[in-house]
Each structure stands twice: as structure tokens, then as C-alpha cells.
Amino acid sequence: MTTETIFDKIIRNEIPADIVYEDDISLAFKDVNPQAPVHLLIIPKKRIATVNDIQEDERELVGHLFVVARKIAVQHGFAKDGYRLVMNCNDDGGQSVYHIHLHLLAGQTLGWPPFANAEPKQG
Ligand code: 5GP
């Protein structure tokens, strides 16, 4: 069993979040520390800690997050201009909340690569 995170409290409405989309199995809300003019987090309501923990029978659930991203992009008018979807995994990936989430970034031209200032690991 994975450990509960702050996102479980958001799912249960115990702490506030600026929710932009919700259905039976997923939730999308504004990131509290936005890195772009639009920065949303799309999460499954089911707790899955990391990409490493995704099971074969959860592929539809994970795919659903991308369908939600597409719906939001169309509804919010940035589908044509473009956007970026990112899911960080563990320390090297920059994951800080251990409940999988798709970052949806939009509203500007996004730089690439996203890790320009990072140093390669030694050894
Ligand atoms: P990660 O670093 O795990 O890929 O992304 C976690 C994201 O969750 C971060 O971008 C961080 O700003 C966001 N975050 C952390 N705590 C909260 C919170 O309580 N509310 C909201 N809306 N976002 C949060």
C-alpha cells in the first residue's frame, strides 16, 4: 500500500484546489507553483505512487489522463497552439508528490530541453 499524499486530501475536498475538470476516475487542478501561464495537474483518483507502479490493468486509467488533457486543451483554446505533458518519476525525474500526475503546461512557447541546467550524474 502506498503512502497517502496531499493529492488525496485534494481529491476528498479536505484542502482547496482550483479544480478545472473532474470525472469519476480523474481530477485536474491548477498547480500551486505554476511554471507556465497554464500549469495543470491531471491525476487519477486511484493512488498510484510512481510510473514504476503502473500495472498492466491500469493502462486504460493512465491513458484516460491523456484524453482529459486533450479535452482541457480544446476547451481552454490552446490545443492548436500546443502544450506539453510531463510525468516525472522518482528523484532523478524530479518527482516530489508520490501520486502520479500529468503536468499540463501551456500558454507560451516552452523551452527544450527542459533540463538545460542539470549536471550529468557521476560514475
Ligand atoms: P512533481 O514534482 O511531483 O512532478 O510535481 C508535483 C507538483 O505538485 C509540483 O509542481 C507542485 O507545485 C504541486 N503541488 C504540490 N503541492 C500542491 C498542493 O497542495 N496543491 C496544488 N495545487 N499543487 C501542489
From TrEMBL:
Lineage summary: Bacteria, Pseudomonadati, Pseudomonadota, Gammaproteobacteria, Alteromonadales
Gene3D superfamilies: HIT-like (3.30.428.10)
Residue ranges of domain HIT in the record: 6-115
Active site (catalytic residues): 101 (tele-amp-histidine intermediate)
Designated name of the protein: Histidine triad nucleotide-binding protein
The species this protein was found in: Pseudidiomarina terrestris
Motif Histidine triad motif, residue numbers: 99-103
A single MF term (Gene Ontology): catalytic activity
